[in-house]
């Protein structure tokens, strides 16, 4: 580990929560394979969709065997969403509905509806336990860039209970921060009036606010929901004299997915909750360092687990030790399917 670089806070969180050594890749992978096997058994027992999909498939004994399992995509969510549920609908605490998101708009602005007005919307279901998993990740992941007693500004919509903004606000409050959730206009006024230590938002909102508050000193910025280009990253750093921490996530991953550490060499994956693969155009897994489509398996979700779900996003992963000292795998590069912008760290 390089001097002065803080190790990702996810290591200690995972170690304390699950009891295995995150400095041992074999221990991490043994945990993940056991969870994959358990999730498949659970999904087959509780979901008619997965029971039919895996009718002729034995529980995998290895990652190689798992890589042969059929993949699912957003079309399956549209056509079979309710059949993918593994709990009674009465146990669902939150439903996120996708209709036709506008390019460049923060995800929360286009998805937070509980009934669709267009044909065949895509719906994703969460139990209270699923939401708590996200909150737990937010709380511990944000320790990398937040300190107790600081002031944070959140630019994500937060009025809807259990939305990104609301969960992030709760996580930061747990960490002892004073939290403000504001729209762009109010955020600009706030930044001009009082010191703010941490700002969280989508790339487009961060850029819009920073252009009107140049030379305001912000210590750290979390960028999420959209890809942050190298040019925009440099612009934010110049405007606010800050460190930028990128985050990758989508509703299907439970909002949280991977977060950058103090080394700024990629985003560490929450490997206790998610297993990521990268596949080529033929659906074959590719080695670390190769570009391909990101495929996710949720390891701990109850309501609607995703098993080998094609995200549509292109990515490069690495399992090499990070300069921060962690062996948690990292996303080095992401190109989101709904944006031409690149995220490279």
Gross morphology is globular
Question: How many strands, what sense, and barrel or not for the largest sheet?
Answer: 12 strands, mixed
Number of E-state strands = 14
What CATH first level would be assigned?
Alpha Beta
Count up the domains: 1
CATH fold-level label: Rossmann fold
Which band does the percent of strand residues land in?
15-25%
Helix content: 25-40%
* Structural class assignment: alpha/beta
Count the DSSP helices: 11
Amino- and carboxy-terminal Cα gap: 18 Å
**Considering the protein shown, what is the CATH homologous superfamily?**
ANL, N-terminal domain
Poorly predicted residue ranges: 100-118, 340-345
Q: What letter string, H or E per element, gives the SSE order? A: HHHHHEHEHEHEHEHEHEEEEEEEE
Overall mean confidence score, pLDDT: 91
Rg over CA atoms? 20 Å
CATH structural architecture: 3-Layer(aba) Sandwich
Notes on the protein architecture:
The longest helix has 22 residues, at 25-46. It contains eleven helices and 14 strands. The protein has 345 residues and is of the alpha/beta class. The protein has one domain: Rossmann fold (3-Layer(aba) Sandwich). A hairpin with a 6-residue loop joins strand 13 (330-335) and strand 14.
Write the layout of secondary structure elements.
Layout (H helix, E strand, L loop, with lengths): L8 H10 L6 H22 L1 H6 L9 H4 L7 H7 L11 E7 L8 H5 L10 E6 H14 L9 E4 L9 H11 L3 E4 L2 H10 L4 E5 H8 L9 E5 L5 H11 L2 E6 L9 E3 L6 E3 L4 E6 L12 E7 L10 E10 L11 E6 L6 E3 L1
Parallel strand pairs: 3-4, 3-5, 5-6, 6-7
Antiparallel strand pairs: 1-2, 7-8, 8-9, 9-13, 10-11, 11-12, 12-13, 13-14
């Amino acid at each position: 580990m390089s001097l002065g670089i803080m190790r990702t806070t996810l290591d200690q969180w995972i170690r304390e929560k699950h009891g295995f050594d995150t400095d041992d890749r074999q221990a991490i992978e043994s945990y993940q394979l056991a969870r994959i096997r358990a999730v498949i058994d659970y999904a087959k027992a509780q979901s008619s969709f997965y029971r039919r999909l895996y009718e002729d498939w034995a529980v995998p004994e290895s990652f190689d065997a798992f890589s042969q399992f059929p993949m699912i995509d957003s079309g399956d969510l549209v056509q079979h969403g309710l059949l993918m549920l593994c709990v009674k609908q009465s146990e669902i605490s939150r439903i996120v509905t996708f209709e036709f998101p506008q390019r460049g708009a923060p995800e929360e602005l286009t998805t937070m509806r509980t009934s669709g007005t267009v044909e065949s919307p895509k719906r994703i279901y969460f139990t209270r336990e699923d939401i708590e998993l996200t909150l737990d990740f937010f709380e511990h992941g944000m320790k990398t860039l937040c300190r107790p007693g600081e002031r944070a500004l959140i630019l994500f919509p937060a009025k809807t209970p259990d939305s990104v903004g609301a969960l992030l606000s709760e996580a930061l409050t747990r960490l002892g921060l004073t939290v403000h959730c504001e729209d762009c206009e109010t955020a600009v006024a706030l930044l001009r009036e009082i010191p703010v230590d941490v700002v969280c938002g989508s790339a487009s909102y961060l850029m819009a606010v920073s252009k009107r508050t140049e030379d305001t000193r912000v210590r750290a910025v979390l960028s999420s929901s959209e890809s942050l280009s190298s040019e925009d990253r440099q612009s934010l750093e110049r405007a606010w004299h800050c460190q930028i921490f990128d985050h990758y996530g989508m509703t299907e991953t439970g909002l949280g997915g991977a977060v950058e550490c103090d080394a700024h060499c990629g985003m560490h994956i929450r490997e206790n909750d998610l297993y990521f693969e990268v596949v080529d155009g033929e659906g074959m897994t590719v080695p670390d360092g190769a570009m391909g489509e990101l495929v996710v398996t949720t390891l701990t979700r109850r309501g609607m687990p995703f098993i080998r779900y094609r995200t549509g996003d292109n990515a490069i992963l690495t399992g090499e030790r990070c300069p921060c000292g962690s062996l948690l795998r990292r996303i080095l590069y992401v190109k989101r399917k709904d944006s031409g912008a690149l995220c490279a760290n």
